[in-house]
Hints:
With 444 residues, chain A is an alpha+beta fold. Chain A has helices at residues 2-13, 30-37, 48-68, 72-100, 109-122, 129-144, 153-161, 168-207, 209-212, 217-234, 241-245, 248-279, 282-290, 328-335, 370-394, 396-404; strands at 293-300, 304-311, 313-314, 319-324, 338-344, 355-365, 421-435, 441-443.
Amino acid sequence: MSSLFQEIKHGERIKLKLGAMQPLKKYKFFQEQVFEGFWPFNRFQSPANVFLLLLVYFIWGLCLYLIYNIPLSFMIAGSCGAFGLFLWTIGIFRYANALRNVEIERINKVNQKFLIGFLENLFHPSSIVLGVFIFTAVLTYLFTSPSLGTDNFLTQLRSAMNVESLPPLLMLFIFLLIFDLCYRLGLSLYLILTQIKRNLILSHYLNTPLLKSHFSPIDIRNLEGSDRIHFVSICGGFTLIPLGLLDPIILIVLLIYISITFILSTAVLIHLRFMYLRAIPDGIMKLIRSAKFAQVGTIRSGKIPHLTPTLFIFNGRNFFIATSNRSQKVKNLRNFNKIAILIDSQNQGDFTKSAGLLTIGHARIYGYNIRTGVGYFLILGFRMIRTYLLFQLKYPHYINEYLRGTKDLPRAWLVFPIISRTIIEIIPEEFYLSKASRSELIKF
Amino acid sequence: MRVKCEIDGKWCDIPDTISRFFLKKAMIYVCSMDRLKKPIIQSVIFVNEPSKCTIAFIAKRSSQIRKNLQNNPYLTLTLDETHLKDPLQHEGIMIETTTRTSTSQSEIQQCYDDLQKKYGIDITAKILGMEIITDYIKIEATPTKIIHWEGPFYRKFVCTGKKN
């Protein structure tokens, strides 16, 4: 455990103080720069400016629909396209904001180099290249009509409107909408490729013992949180499907694109989850595995700490405790969901060598009465069953004793999941290492 | 056997089952609250004075616990005896306290000496370090409520105004 301490202290020692330097503020996507340069978009912040873009597309599209008598199916497809664009842009802007808001001054030098490298790649001007390439390919397809005996989107629209060539205003609208969509498609793919590159670099760092200690599991978890925003925004791609229904070639390409990005994004998130676990120092993992009891702290009435020992399990990501759904812990957490859990080695032979892991986070109560318990079970039933099984696996004697002494136990202690017991999930936000009774805590 | 002690003019009548925890356990878990109202748990070595019911320990001036207690003087302590196989034999106490921090050199020195008496010079130095005494403060915790549990059964002790 002492070597673990040195390892973590080493990470702390090389913290940089960059003062007023704010290098993250300069990072912006092309779309954000366009919004900043054009009235009226530059008068609003995200998401209001994105909503304005959606409104512009809707009003413009509606006017074109009324003036040129465009078929309703094209109007619906265009609206879905604009709505998908809106969702996608909101997601990408939120993703950019989440990454820009990292307090880089508080990160150690190695982690900082890694993060700045990732951001430089992510917001690089070349992020537009894939979008331009997709746009060129789509235009080439639409204007040269290489479809296999079928009409493409534009020729179908021409024949539906019974005109030789489409009106310029309508062409401009289609051109802009297609460019916007292709830019998002290209940007999302670019983001995923950058995330894969970042994961590989991070994995290399975590495989190098000297560098591993500079990466906190919480940092990796935060990266995962940001990536998840982008993952959700990819789902905006599904709203483009009505657009593809008008053109089978576009539909096939779109479905292939959505599948590939969906699979790659999922793989990136799963990889980050594994790296979160790898970033936890080996000594800490041993401690978590060997410890049987933990101290759990909550806050009562906004000021009085409440501290009790409890059984716990760790599922590789979060901590779980089981308690009576009438317990003081549950009452406290319903009012204020911050929670702390201390797992220590309790070295009875030589307590000066004891070390502990203090985790501070927020709690999720899986129901505090039968009604909410059933509700949670319907949503998170699989996770609840898995958690109970993990408890059974770790504490078989306890569970047997509970079951054996059913008649003598108070109602709160009866092993009736949902009815009398509930699960509290502790989602870590900060990790600290504490050693014996030293009144210092080392964040890692 | 029962231990009687006086807190702020009120008398606490603490059964032996509770007071023996102080003798059995070397370290006590303490939980304070930081400025963002997050609970912070640590374990400390301590001395207790049965006649005054108080529990005292020392901490560094720059420590998190000191910052927390400056904002919120409430501190909760726990001592427990866990049982690996039978939850019904699990026993412990949780003590809700209000604290007083002291920077008086004589009080800190007295507490340090008491710790040395209890734990020995080597262990005290190993745990608290060799820093000069001015780097420390003394924290004295006075109980307001004690909860004792034995298996699933709980008992609550609140100090009363009468000396029986």
